[in-house]
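Journal club prep — side note

Before the paper discussion, L.F. wants everyone to see what a predicted structure for a comparable chain looks like in token form. Sequence:
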Amino acid sequence: MFFCLNFIPLIYDAPMTDNNILQSKTISYLRFPLIVVVVLAHSSLASFTIQGEDVGTQAVYPVYEGIGYYITWVFGQIIIPTFFFISGFLFFLKVKEWNADVYKTKMKRRFRSLVIPYLFWNLLALTLFFIAENLPYISGLFSGNYMQIKDYGIKEFMMAFWVKEGGVAQSPFLYPFWFIRDLIVISALSPLVYLVVRYLKLVGLAVLFTLWYFDAFNITGLGTAGIFFFSAGAYLGLNKINLITLFNKLYYPSMFYPTLSVIVLITRDYWFNQYIHYIGILLGIIFIFNIASSGIRHNKLRMPVFFANASFFVYATHEPWLLLIKKFSFYIFQPSAEVSYILLFIVPALLIIGLSLAAYYIMSKYMPRFLNIVTGGR
């Protein structure tokens, strides 16, 4: 999945009133826990393949299936829209007058913060998979459903940076990076976003909301969710509307989100579920902002700077290692009970987060310049 809240700088020129400070702290705080949710969502053992054989489980264990579904498809579905929303908000927050020079400056910054990391981490994933496919004890863990890297031609290699044939959700080779790919595209189209939010205003947002709510289209690299949530954030940023002030006005309605999320979970097999779920995504974004900002305001929530800074690195490195750890764990332990399935859902995710944090710490000590480049200067 992000990214993320790391993709746009968190320093801006707005007057530092109490709520502006709280807004900045809230965004910074959310970075790491939301990345943790992304990793957990990608850790689902619901279905994966080893040598052409499906060794996952489909609703065999109700508690495991319910937990996995909730994290991955209910609460987890809030994360990417939140990232798009924050990215759009911070993209336009400093903008006072849109012109070619502003656009040129922003594209230069996005090249460093988005394009370079996107190319690097996808290339690294291709390289690691190429090596792993040729190691005797690891090669047998691959599904066998896709062309091996060694058989790639120029076309397949180039397309791996856009969309892998048969890949997850029309993603690039490193599938969590589909978000960055889409963010690069929508950032490049930011002049159009500006026109919509500057001149069509709420009418334009209503049209984009309708397109997203009814899944009007989903073009690779430009989905309706990315367009709507980035534009919604852009509207608030361009008009210098403080998120904490706005969302606090909806504090009590947003507290209904946990109940609504359970309704989404138990109605997942009904045709109307999507429409409840999409309302839940909107309410859920407000909910997590209100919970985080309230906790920070009352000194009940704190996040060490290290974890916030390491968020993008965790996001970038959790795959393909998480997938390999899941498959290896399943191959070794052969789970046959619900508790073991739950453990193999959670433990690999926590393990890869811990290893990523350790790697980030070591690199920050001994390779800070390189780390700065591959994380986009975050």
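L.F.'s comment for the group: Residues 4-374 form one domain. Keep this in mind when we get to the figures.
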